[in-house]
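user: can you give me the structure for this one chain? tokens are fine.
assistant: on it. calling the predictor now.
[tool input]
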Amino acid sequence: MAKTKQIEVQGSVINLSIAKDSDYICITDMANAKDGSGRAADIIKNWIRTRTTLEFLGTWEQLYNPDFKVVEFDHFKMEAGLPSFVLSPSKWVETTNAKGIYTKKGKYGGTYAHKDIAFEFGSAISPVFKLFLIKEFQRLKDDENERLNLEWNLQRTLSKINYKIHTDAIKENIVPNLISKSQINFVYANEADLLNVALFGITAKQWKVENPSSKGNMRDEASIEQLVVLSNMESINALLIEQGLTQKDRLVQLNKVAIMQMKSLLENESFKKLDN
């Protein structure tokens, strides 16, 4: 959707219609800036009826407008230069299906031309005015590009933030779950698997079955946070054994420790830097 913008050229306001693919400039404003209000329509009609202008417009349309009616254009070109030949922008558009020029009514109304055509019109009314017009138009486009770059950088920043949120959500999944009753009642062959179940929720053998393509074991694939907690759990488990707690009771306690410590590490800013 086109947006109306304005630039000031040698003290005169020129309206622009800025779209994604094409920019149009109000040549009515340009004509008024050159010769004062009231004569713009005549200036545009006198300009568009010349053979030079028609050849320029026709060539532009054939380059960019596949629906341009070439036969009707040739008819206008044959009449160009005759004293009786009169042509207006609206008649040009209606007859040839041109898209390089259009007429707009209401607020910001007037005859608008694609920037290529508007600059050509500028050459006809005043080469000096044309140069100032190009300068101000380019300044506007540079400002737009700067704003778009700022928006692009903002989007990149937001994407990074969203990515961080996503990775944090994944990390939350490595926080151990509360072990089930069946796990509590199960007797593990060694203390290493007791720790594995408390932290990872499965035994080393179960992990291997679920990850047949992995060359290492579950501890080789563990995160740095999990390895830190695992080391702490080994010391705590040794202390619980000395206190005479059963394997079932130790599993419950170790699971609680794993959950608490994993959450603490994942929320620690200093520890996060080690992962980056």
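assistant: here you go. Residues 3-148 form one domain. Residues 127-172 form the longest helix (46 residues).
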